[in-house]
Amino acid sequence: MYKQKTIENDGDVIEFIENVESPQKRKDAYSLLEIFSETTGYPPKMWGTSIIGFGSYHYKYPTGHEGDAPLVGFSPRKAKISLYFATGDTDRDALLKQFGKHTSGKACVYINKLADIDVDILKKLIKQSVTFLQKTYPESSE
To answer: Are 121 and 99 in contact (CB under 8 A)?
Structure first.
């Protein structure tokens, strides 16, 4: 049976950010911490060893696979900063067109630095993702 690796834990968010090697990524991580906290109203929590998540929801796919995940989050990784939004939200693409310099995958949006993007659009993406997940998984969102 599949065991979820990325779970919420009691890791220290500030200690994690302090250990980010790049001074620019560390500075951006503190800014993102403030933006995500203020926009969601949720306190930051470590998920796994490298994701800072806000809020949580329980998902269950038609395949039977289920687990818990943050509503939104970010991770200041070595190569790029990963921003985690809802998978399956088809409205995300319209906002990403106005977002600034980024690349994206199924759930992640990758940026080099905060200065490359429009912070107001980031806040809209955060709100849109939280709303989408709370509508999709209403009984399990916090």
So the answer is: yes
